């Protein structure tokens, strides 16, 4: 990593963005690692399990647009504080009153979606402090908060076994409250933020075809990542008969791998260009998702293939957000919301389709194969636009960043 990166920006804010993102993602996917135990107590079908873990992903996706607008209106720090307080209140209510039905689990999932909307806060909070040549690295570090999903998978099933799954909601309040305090003290909004816009101006960006391309590209990379992160505990339990705790360990390994490489993907995109990096990641992700769809026989082989797919998706996430600030720097708040929303919708589709695939066909092959096909379509789309991008907003006369 270039020495000049550490001399730029505001390190306490970058750390705060990462920490806030990390803990928010931990609770966003919390129902996934607990799904096997919750489903056993509530008597859920495979499709209901899939929908339960997909609901926070969908609501988080939709709320990212709302949070992106809020970021531009009241600044990222204040928007993040509001989101954290809502999530803490929802978890406290679920802990004190318990979850007794499928409908109540879905309701909690809706409120946990607020944590998923943290994406639309953390990235602008970090991005606005850094110049174009360091955007990939800065957003990769902030976006490495994806690793919170691994913490949920690593600790939640074991804590549920020891204390009961409803008490995990109460235990999660401890790190969330600590994070809120640190965030309040350390985070600082960047000077000279973009001017606030009217609501109609926000939706003007959707008239730009590049906005739709970015939304689609991220729906595949991030959608694949979060959809798999939400579903892997169920997958390893169903596919290989692992108990919830060991399935959680397998899930944590996969998610850690995909999360920790996000800064590497951003940094690689800074060095060789976002388009080249993203294209490579689509090829790798599609290949390993197709291999996984074949129904691998051994636990170790399945684990290794999932890790490879998650690494490709995680690096792809970093590459997408190396490109976005170059194209939409003035609209980074609303674009983060829109693109994040699309990513969450992709995750909702994958998580829910895996549940339905299992229920209707007895395997996950159809769901995984279709998503691998989406990665190939994204690769074709990126090939279609790359020449125009490199000769217009990505040309050397416009930016010092490599596109």
From TrEMBL:
Membrane topology: Multi-pass membrane protein
Keyword rRNA processing: no
Compartments where found: Cell membrane; Membrane
Membrane-spanning parts: 12-31, 51-71, 78-96, 102-126, 138-163, 169-190, 211-235, 247-265, 277-296, 302-320, 332-352, 364-385
Main location: membrane
Keywords of this entry: Cell membrane, Membrane, Nitrate assimilation, Transmembrane, Transmembrane helix, Transport
Sequence ranges assigned to domain Major facilitator superfamily (MFS) profile in this UniProt record: 12-390
Key word Repeat present: no
PANTHER family: HIGH-AFFINITY NITRATE TRANSPORTER 2.3
Recorded family membership: Belongs to the major facilitator superfamily. Nitrate/nitrite porter (TC 2.A.1.8) family.
Name assigned to this protein: Nitrate/nitrite transporter
Organism: Methylobacillus methanolivorans
């Amino acid at each position: 990593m270039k020495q000049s990166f550490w001399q730029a920006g505001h390190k306490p804010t970058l750390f705060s963005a990462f920490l806030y993102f990390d803990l928010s993602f931990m609770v966003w996917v919390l129902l996934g690692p607990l799904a096997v135990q919750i489903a056993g107590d509530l008597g859920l079908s495979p499709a209901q399990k899939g929908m339960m873990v997909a609901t926070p992903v969908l609501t988080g996706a939709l709320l990212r647009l709302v949070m992106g607008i809020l970021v531009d209106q009241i600044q990222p720090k204040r928007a993040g504080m509001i989101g954290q307080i809502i999530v803490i209140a929802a978890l406290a209510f679920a802990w004190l009153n318990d979850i007794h039905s499928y409908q109540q689990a879905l309701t909690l999932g809706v409120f946990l979606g607020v944590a998923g909307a943290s994406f639309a806060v953390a990235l602008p909070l970090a991005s606005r402090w850094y110049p174009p040549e360091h955007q990939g690295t800065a957003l990769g570090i902030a976006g490495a908060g994806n690793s919170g999903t691994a913490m949920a998978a690593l600790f939640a099933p074991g804590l549920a076994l020891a204390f009961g799954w409803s008490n995990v909601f109460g235990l999660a309040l401890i790190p969330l409250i600590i994070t809120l305090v640190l965030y309040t003290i350390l985070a600082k909004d960047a000077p000279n933020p973009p001017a606030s816009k009217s609501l109609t101006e926000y939706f003007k960006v959707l008239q730009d075809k590049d906005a739709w391309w970015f939304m689609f590209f991220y729906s595949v990379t991030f959608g694949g990542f979060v959809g798999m992160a939400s579903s892997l505990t169920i997958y390893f339990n169903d596919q290989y008969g692992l108990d919830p705790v060991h399935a959680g360990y397998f899930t944590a390994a996969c998610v850690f791998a995909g999360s920790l490489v996000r800064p590497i993907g951003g940094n690689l995109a800074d060095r060789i260009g976002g388009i080249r990096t993203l294209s490579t990641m689509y090829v790798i992700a599609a290949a390993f998702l197709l291999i996984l769809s074949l129904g691998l026989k051994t636990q170790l082989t399945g684990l290794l293939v999932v890790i490879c797919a998650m690494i490709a998706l995680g690096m792809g996430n970093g590459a997408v957000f190396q490109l976005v600030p170059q194209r939409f720097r003035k609209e980074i708040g609303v674009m983060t919301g829109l693109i994040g929303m699309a990513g969450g919708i992709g995750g909702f589709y994958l998580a829910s389709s895996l549940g339905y695939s299992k229920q209707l066909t007895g395997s996950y092959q159809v769901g995984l194969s279709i998503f691998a096909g989406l990665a190939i379509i994204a690769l074709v789309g990126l090939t279609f636009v790359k020449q125009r991008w490199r000769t217009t907003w990505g040309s050397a006369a416009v930016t010092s960043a490599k596109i």
